[in-house]
């Protein structure tokens, strides 16, 4: 479908891709991964707007390829139509257009121009199965477990519910290629599960950017991994790719080590022959010396550069800015919320008489479905604490946009926010979706930093891995009130209702194995890396 041939591109001062050769085939469910700032979104924009870019190499694609696109941020429609009407809108518009052209043909003297337009609309309707749209909408809602939303007003949906339905509408339109840039961002757990179902049941071709560990382990059958200005392609699941990648890097490092050992032996022979040549006048030693020196130069060119190992460690240290010791850190504070009520524009209260207490140093996760008021309550709690502890309470916002940050990716913007929190001592941190947009390794390091942080944490999150890794307690908001439970009890309830295995533990072990293996490779301990991976020892 789309083929990159010797493709290179970059911006002034930053090369992103060099001599890329890969192919997206019909029916692939491909995930595009890579660290923050590696060029994932740029590659997407280039596919969408190729005419705006100058690059080296070729991008081969069918003429008039129909591409659907879902960006990270989707503007919520404000119409008072129902969910079914929202999903049906593009189909109804095309059918109405066909009817209007049919009426014009009945009255027109020159039919050719109108008939061409009519045929084009009919072709579009056929391409999207427009005559069966009502049945298809009902099937998609049922497959995602969202049938109960069919008659809900679109302007009364939460942002997460709307984004999920926006994804569904784009899938129903059956583009030849559907591109999604972090479709999971800000989805609550139930909507994330629905998104997984939509992706896995989708019969079309997908190219998706995501850092979400649930999506990565549950979806996709092809991996594109941007690393060191190249894109590694692997047909298979993400866990399969991860193991293959580590095994391959071990083999490459061992091959390079063998090359180096062989070159060292050849250089030792050259030194020996050079000594003989200096001691005798025989011409053969001089000729041997020249031949072996030439051979060594060829070997060094064949060897190439050392294999690339991306540095996945992030230095997130919350509560101990550089130059301060643990004894100098301000003591954590408690957080008391009493009879809190939240209402918008004289509507019925969304939250009423909410009361809870957070002990100094405790880590609390605020969870709940989209639209339950979590972020608004967190903002109000921050303002209350900031009035009492001016400048001593840190606050991470979901989205921060300014003239400078708009030039950055979502992950880079959030990394900048996190670094600001690391540079100042705080008695407490209020975090609103802090792991969103971060690559996997940054997510994990931030979770470790939160767990180690001596202050108090109140965190709104839909990231179940963040909850499982950091939360002492969970406060779940539902039906305008709260329910408290331990982090362990919340995690068990997720397993019981949605999964047949401990996916959190499996993913933790996978990441730990990858990081340990990479660190050992970096240290040249290849046999130990094999042991960590359970990879058979190299035969002598």
Q: Assign the CATH topology of the largest domain.
A: Rossmann fold
> What level of helicity do the residues show?
40-55%
CATH superfamily of the largest domain: P-loop containing nucleotide triphosphate hydrolases
Q: Give the overall shape, derived from the CA principal axes.
A: flat
| Rg calculated over all Cα atoms | 29 Å
Please, what is the average pLDDT? Answer: 86
Strand content: 15-25%
Low-pLDDT segments: none
- Strand count: 17
Euclidean distance between termini CA atoms: 44 Å
Q: Sheet with the most strands?
A: 6 strands, mixed
- Second rung of CATH, namely the architecture of the largest domain: 3-Layer(aba) Sandwich
Q: What's the structural domain tally?
A: 3
CATH class membership of the largest domain: Alpha Beta
How many DSSP helices? 16
Which class do the helix and strand fractions yield?
alpha/beta
Task: Please state how the strands of the largest beta sheet are arranged side by side.
Answer: 5-6-7-3-8-9
What do these coordinates show?
α2 runs parallel beside α5 and α5 runs parallel beside α6 (189-201). A six-stranded mixed sheet has the order 5-6-7-3-8-9, with helices on both faces. Strands 13-14-15-12-16-17 form a six-stranded mixed sheet, sandwiched between helices. Strands 2-1-4 form a three-stranded antiparallel sheet, with no helix packed on it. The protein folds into three domains: 42-236, P-loop containing nucleotide triphosphate hydrolases (Rossmann fold, 3-Layer(aba) Sandwich), CATH 3.40.50.300; 242-303; 326-342 and 349-499, P-loop containing nucleotide triphosphate hydrolases (Rossmann fold, 3-Layer(aba) Sandwich). A hairpin with a 2-residue loop joins β16 (473-478) and β17. With 540 residues, it is of the alpha/beta class. Helix content is 45%, strand content 19%. The two termini are 44 Å apart. It has helices spanning 40-48, 83-107, 112-127, 133-143, 159-172, 189-201, 213-218, 238-279, 283-303, 374-388, 410-422, 440-452, 464-470, 487-498, 503-522, 526-533, and strands at residues 2-11, 14-24, 29-34, 56-60, 67-70, 177-181, 206-209, 222-227, 230-235, 335-342, 351-358, 363-368, 393-396, 428-432, 456-460, 473-478, 481-486. It is flat and about 100 Å long.
């Amino acid at each position: 479908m789309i083929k990159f041939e010797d493709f290179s591109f970059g911006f002034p001062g930053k090369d992103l891709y060099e001599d890329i050769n890969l192919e997206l085939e019909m029916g692939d469910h491909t995930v595009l991964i890579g660290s923050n700032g590696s060029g994932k979104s740029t590659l997407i924009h280039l596919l969408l707007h190729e005419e705006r870019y100058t690059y080296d190499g070729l991008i081969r694609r069918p003429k008039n390829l129909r591409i659907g696109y879902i960006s990270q941020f989707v503007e919520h429609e404000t119409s008072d139509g129902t969910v079914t009407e929202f999903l049906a809108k593009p189909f109804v518009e095309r059918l109405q257009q066909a009817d209007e052209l049919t009426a014009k043909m009945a009255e027109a003297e020159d039919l050719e121009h109108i008939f061409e337009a009519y045929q084009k609309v009919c072709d579009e309707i056929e391409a999207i199965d427009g005559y069966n749209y009502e049945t298809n909408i009902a099937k998609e809602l049922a497959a995602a477990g969202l049938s109960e939303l069919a008659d809900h007003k679109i302007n009364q949906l939460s942002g997460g519910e709307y984004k999920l339905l926006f994804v569904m509408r784009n899938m129903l339109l059956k583009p030849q290629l559907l591109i999604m840039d972090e479709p999971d961002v800000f989805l609550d757990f139930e909507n994330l599960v629905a998104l997984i179902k939509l992706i896995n049941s989708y019969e079309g071709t997908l190219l998706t950017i995501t850092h979400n560990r649930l999506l990565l382990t549950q979806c996709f059958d092809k991996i594109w991994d941007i690393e060191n200005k190249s894109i590694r392609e692997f047909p298979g699941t993400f866990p399969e790719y991860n193991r293959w990648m580590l095994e391959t890097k071990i083999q490459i490092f061992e091959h390079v080590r063998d090359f180096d050992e062989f070159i060292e032996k050849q250089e030792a022979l050259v030194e020996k022959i050079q000594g003989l040549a200096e001691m005798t006048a025989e011409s053969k030693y001089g000729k041997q010396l020249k031949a072996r020196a030439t051979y060594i130069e060829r070997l060094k060119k064949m060897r190439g550069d050392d294999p690339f190992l991306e540095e996945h460690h992030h230095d997130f240290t919350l509560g101990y800015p550089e130059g301060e010791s643990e004894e100098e850190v301000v003591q954590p504070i408690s957080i008391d919320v009493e009879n809190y009520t939240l209402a918008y524009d004289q509507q019925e209260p969304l939250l009423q008489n909410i009361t809870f207490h957070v002990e100094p140093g405790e880590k609390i996760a605020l969870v709940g479905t989209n639209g339950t008021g979590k972020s608004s309550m967190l903002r109000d709690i921050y303002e209350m604490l900031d009035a009492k502890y001016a400048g001593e309470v840190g606050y991470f916002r979901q989205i921060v946009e300014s003239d400078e940050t708009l030039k950055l990716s979502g992950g880079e913007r959030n990394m900048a926010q996190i670094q600001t929190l690391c540079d100042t001592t705080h008695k407490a941190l209020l975090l609103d979706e802090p792991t969103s947009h971060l690559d996997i390794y940054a997510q994990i390091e931030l979770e470790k930093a939160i767990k180690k942080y001596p202050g108090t944490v109140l965190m709104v999150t839909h990231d179940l891995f963040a909850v499982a890794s950091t939360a002492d307690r969970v406060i779940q908001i539902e039906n305008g009130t709260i329910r408290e439970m331990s982090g362990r009890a919340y995690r068990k309830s997720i397993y019981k209702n949605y999964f047949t295995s401990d996916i959190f533990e499996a993913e933790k072990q996978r990441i730990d194995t990858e990081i340990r293996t990479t660190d050992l490779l970096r240290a040249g301990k290849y046999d130990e890396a094999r042991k960590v991976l359970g990879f058979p020892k190299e035969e002598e």
